[in-house]
Specification:
The chain is mainly α and 121 residues long. The protein has 2 domains: 3-74, no CATH class; 85-115, no CATH class. Helices cover 48% and strands 8% of the residues. The chain has 4 helices and 4 strands. The structure holds zinc ion.
């Protein structure tokens, strides 16, 4: 590799890093098929390229924060249900929140909207 080639390669790496760091939330669309080890995913938002292994770690961090990993990669976890309202509300009760039934139903209504659930239950 000549020095100009090396500089060009470094510039491309930096450009990709800048894209990835400037992106608020990556979204990789569908899992490319056939899936191959060592492949790269392109974010549809920032056009940055990320190695699949790094993308999976990114998705796992997103999921650990309580978010749906399928937002990032379609079908990553087809059985994802997330935290139930009851599980989430327990954390608020532990902080001292004590709501009456009507108020709690309003909170649940907001929860359902946030989760994209249509049924109130
Ligand atoms: Zn991105």
């Amino acid at each position: 590799m000549t020095p100009p080639e090396a500089r060009s390669m470094l510039a491309k790496i930096k450009e990709n890093q800048d894209r990835l760091f400037s992106c608020k939330r990556h979204e990789f669309g569908d899992v490319p098929m056939p899936f191959e080890m060592g492949m790269t995913f392109r974010c549809v938002r920032c056009q940055g390229d990320m190695k699949a292994i790094d993308a999976f770690r990114y998705i796992q961090g997103y999921e650990a924060a309580g978010r749906n990993p399928n937002d990032i990669l379609n079908g990553y976890r087809a059985d994802w249900k997330g935290e139930t309202f009851e599980e989430a509300w327990k954390a608020f009760e532990a902080q001292g929140f004590m709501y009456g039934r009507d108020a709690l139903e309003q909170v649940r209504f907001g929860w359902n909207i946030a989760k994209g659930l249509r049924t109130a239950s």
